Amino acid sequence: MKDTITKESLKPSTERSNRSGRTTSGTEPTTSAGTATETGATQTRATQTRTTSQSRTTATDDPSEIPSASLLSRADEVLLPVYARPDVLFVWGQGSTLTSADGAEYLDFTSGIAVNAFGHGSGIVERAVASVSGLIHVSNLYHTAPAIELADELVSRSFADKVFFANSGAEAVEAAIKLARLHAGNKERREILSFEGAFHGRTFGALAATDKEQIKAPFRPLPEAFRRLPMGSIEALEEIGPRTAGVLVEPIQGESGIRVAPAEWLQALRKRCTETGALLIFDEIQCGLGRTGTLWAHEASGVEPDLMTLAKPLAAGLPIGAVLATDRASKHVTPGCHGSTFGGGPVVCRAGVEVVRRASSPELLAEVRRKGMVLRDALRGTPGVTEVRGRGLMVGARCSVPAAAVVRAAFDQNFLLVPAGDDVVRFLPPLVVTDGEIEEAVRRFRNAIERAEQGAEQ
Ligand SMILES: Cc1ncc(COP(=O)(O)O)c(C=O)c1O
User: Does residue 177 sit in the same domain as residue 248?
Assistant: First the structure.
């Protein structure tokens, strides 16, 4: 079984071993918009390398000295094959551009699946490390300033009164499920409801709430008392009742195809949860923190949850998860009922403070809305696109050919995208993406979809 899916399904039509120059179409791998830095200036590859070399501590950190071919051949021997990855080794990133060991530049519209909101090389992590360098870890036995500061930022900018820090999205979801059960108190009220198309993570509780049979089947039996309802159906909300501890929902579903939950349905959901005493939990792990053009995706509906999970962009690429809770939803929490060794550490929280402040900027959010419109309008006019969905810079293009084929063809154009379901391609550029990069992305996407269509006809 070893490595067959990985190599064959993702191998691009061009020769992967020499990607230093051009793609088959003759497209220059460098983004035509240049490599935008945060200040809007452009950097050449040479200056980028020089800049990193200055901060590197060992000679082997220099991209030109990384033995990429031998490392890639070793990858399949030493890494569990849970991901199907192409044979490329990324060594450097700046803004919306990733550079591979052989010097090819890729326009990155995945942002590490909605993690790198401020682009590669934003400096946020470096500043965080520098600011707490004498205090990397002290455990949750004691207080440190960054965790309190980050919780304060989150609380003062949201519906919430309290925050718990974890290390990933799935862990944040687990904590939210536990909080809902703790709030319910009574063993009869233990059901967690989620919705068709939901993705909440891969740990056992989060997986039980996820609606993707393919990733659940090998691990059954999963925790019981999890059930899914159709998303968008007002009648189905009648299923929420005295046995329901919590209702978990993504205001915009990411993995299953950028499906926006209608505002009136979210309002009805809020009402039903309040009537029945179930906690409403918004999973904003992918759609939160400015991605949709408002700080929180749920703002567009006017509805506030009792609990909310965050993760991906919150610490600019460092692992973090968070659950935000109202006082009412967390009233039964006592010392020892939940915890985490690494959660809320000084470095990640200091990075989080800068992310939350920057993601809250009205200017940035207005730009996310504007650029999202530019991207969606351009995609709407693209042959082979049957529907464009999403809000802000969380965009899905439904295609007439399988999404995986389009993503592979885009990769051949040095353009990184990620599928969301069978026929939707997801666009998650950094929130600081430039107009030039959007234009270039649409150009490469058009080529990719055309090639995927040609491939499907053959
Ligand atoms: C909406 C949503 N919830 C939860 C998760 C799980 O997060 P993690 O992969 O950090 O565990 C994801 C990850 O893609 C997600 O998109």
Answer: yes
